[in-house]
Specification:
Elements lengths: L1 H23 L2 H7 L3 H4 L4 H44 L4 H9 L13 E2 L1 H14 L3 H11 L14 H8 L3 H13 L3 E6 L2 E6 L4 E2 L4 H11 L12
Antiparallel strand pairs: 1-4, 2-3
């Protein structure tokens, strides 16, 4: 009877301990519950929630970027229209470009360095050396063009007279050199009404900071037309 009473007391004690552990949420109960299927799936909810949050943040960032790009395009269009009007009114090209640049998105005016393709630049210099009728003046002009190219479009912001004066040659000889450079697409000519504007080939040099902007500019400029070693067109 004593043994039976002791066993009953032990069972009662154990039951009391179990109830106490349930109320406290003991580690032992947590370990036992970890084996249940419904409990194992719970930790997977956190990574899924984090993933959904990351996706939402990415969509938000893309929306902000898209809005910023649309605004930049609108500002660029307004600046271009302003520049056209300023030039028609007689404002010098450099001054018109300067005022127009202030209307553009600030991101288009941050880049201050010229990115040069060494191989393309070398091809132009070699062509000048071997084919130009005025190689010394042409080389000096080519070097100077990097200093006066516009940041966002690559336009050469000096008049024929200003460039000729800078090099100490006649305007006629300067025009002949520019024609040579245009013949190999080192610079390109655009005619807008009565005005002729010149642009650096973006495949050779550009101020543009963004990869997408540089890619578009290079595609529009076209390749340097030096197809054979030695400079033959």
């Amino acid at each position: 009877m004593k043994a039976l009473g002791a066993t009953a007391e032990q069972l009662a004690f154990r039951l009391a301990i179990d109830r106490a552990l349930e109320g406290l949420g003991s580690p032992e109960r947590g370990k036992e519950a970890a084996g249940r299927p419904q409990e194992r799936e719970a930790p997977q909810k956190a990574p899924r929630a984090a993933q959904r949050g990351a996706q939402a943040a990415q969509r938000l960032a893309e929306g902000v970027e898209s809005l910023a790009n649309a605004r930049a395009r609108q500002q660029a269009a307004q600046a271009e229209e302003f520049e056209k009007l300023a030039r028609r009114a007689g404002m010098p090209p450099e001054a018109a470009a300067h005022f127009a640049s202030n209307l553009r998105s600030p991101s288009t005016n941050e880049w201050t360095f010229v990115m040069i393709s060494p191989a393309q630049n070398s091809a132009v210099v070699r062509w000048i050396s071997e084919n130009s009728k005025r190689p010394q003046a042409a080389t000096l002009l080519w070097a100077h063009l990097f200093e006066v190219m516009r940041n966002d479009t690559g336009e050469i912001l000096r008049s024929r007279e200003e460039l000729a004066e800078r090099l100490g040659i006649s305007a006629q000889n300067l025009s002949r050199i520019i024609t040579e450079l245009c013949s190999i697409n080192a610079i390109r000519r655009e005619k807008q009404g009565r005005e002729v504007r010149y642009f650096m080939n973006a495949n050779i040099a550009t101020h543009l900071p963004g990869h997408a902007a540089r890619k578009q500019a290079r595609e529009e400029a076209g390749p340097l037309l030096v197809l054979m070693e030695g400079g033959a067109k």
